[in-house]
Amino acid sequence: MNKKTYTVGILSLTAVILFVANLLVPSRVQADFAVKDRNYQAVTAHQQAGDDALYVLDNQTGLMAVFSYDPGRKALVVRAISPIQNAFAGALPNR
């Protein structure tokens, strides 16, 4: 085995390892993702400030809570809790 064959073998092995590693990379987290169960729904969405927010809807009580990450506190912070009906209060005029 000469030096040229050894180098080609090592480079080929490295290419295969990198290809497999690229296939096994977990998917990135994205906003605009929803999870629905019986009693709760969780939805992520972009805020106006450019960050992401987590909206948790409780189907039994009809309440919606909005959470966002506060980098100053390094914690998830409740931004608002209100009935879901308030979000649609002015959507359609009464006829």
Which labels suit this protein?
95 residues; 5 strands; five-stranded antiparallel beta sheet; alpha+beta; 36% strand
How would you sum up this structure, described in words?
It is a single chain. The protein has helices at residues 3-23, 84-87; strands at 34-36, 40-46, 52-58, 63-70, 75-83. It is α+β, with helices and mostly antiparallel strands and 95 residues long. It has a domain at 34-87. It has a 5-stranded antiparallel sheet with strand order 1-2-3-4-5. The longest helix is centred in the N-terminal third of the chain and has 21 residues, at 3-23. The model has no long low-confidence stretch (mean pLDDT 82).
Give the percentage of residues in beta strands: 35-45%
**Helix count?**
2
Low-confidence stretches: none
Q: Strand order of the main beta sheet, please? A: 1-2-3-4-5
Number of distinct beta strands:
5
Shape category: elongated
Order of helices and strands: HEEEEEH
> What structural category arises from helix and sheet content?
alpha+beta
Task: Specify Rg, calculated over alpha carbons.
Answer: 24 Å
Q: How many strands, what sense, and barrel or not for the largest sheet? A: 5 strands, antiparallel
